[in-house]
Each structure stands twice: as structure tokens, then as C-alpha cells.
Amino acid sequence: MCVDGLWLGTWARFLAGSRLAPFVPTPPEVCRRLLQLGRLRAGERVVDLGCGDGRMLVTAVTEFGAASATGYELN
After folding, report:
1. Residue 13 has what pLDDT?
2. Beta carbons within 8 Å of 35's beta carbon, 6+ residues apart
3. Nearest Cα to 73, choosing from 57, 56, 49?
4. What is the pLDDT of residue 11?
5. Alpha helix locations (H) across the chain?
6. Nearest in space to 44 (alpha carbons), one of 54, 53, 34, 35
7. How many beta carbons lie within 10 A of that of residue 64, not counting itself?
């Protein structure tokens, strides 16, 4: 977005209310596969940036035995 010749970065666009993309939930089977590919082991900690509704975090704790899960979401 350009205002009076000034380029506004991603954060500025977000704060101005111009969303970057719609929320599309990750299917449960994709969550499981991503955690398998990441080789998540029981007792490890998980951090998810842009976690949405947190379904990846819930799957990590309930099905993979993660010790803790922290998610960050702007919206």
C-alpha cells in the first residue's frame, strides 16, 4: 500500500485494517502430518506463529505428547 508516496509495510497494512489473507483452517490430517514431518517428540515444546484457532497446538499436546504449546495470533 502506498500513501502519498510512502510505502507501508506488512504490519502497517495489518494495523490499518487491510488484512493480508482470509483465515482457512488446516485440516486435522494435515496438522498430524506436519507434526510428523517436524519429528515432534513427547516432552518437547511447540511454538506456532500465526496459530489461527490453535488446532495445531491442540493436536501437538493431545496426540503427540508435547510438554507445552504456545501460539501467537494477531487477529
Report:
1. 66
2. 56, 59, 60, 63, 64
3. 49
4. 64
5. 10-15, 28-37, 55-64
6. 35
7. 19
Neighbour tally for 33: CB within 10 Å: 12
C-alpha cell, 17: 485494517
Tell me the per-residue pLDDT of 10-30, one tens digit each, with 9 for 90 and over: 666 667 766 666 678 899 999
Low-confidence ranges of the chain (pLDDT < 50): 1
CA angle, 26 as apex, 60 and 13 as ends, to 5°?
110
Q: Rounded to two decimals, what is the model's pTM?
A: 0.70
Give 26's strand partners.
none
Q: Which residues fall within 8 angstroms of residue 9, CB to CB, at 6 or more apart?
A: none
- Amino acid occupying residue 69: A
**Quick check: helix, strand or coil at residue 68?**
strand
For residues 57 and 11, what is the distance between their CA atoms, to the nearest angstrom?
Answer: 24
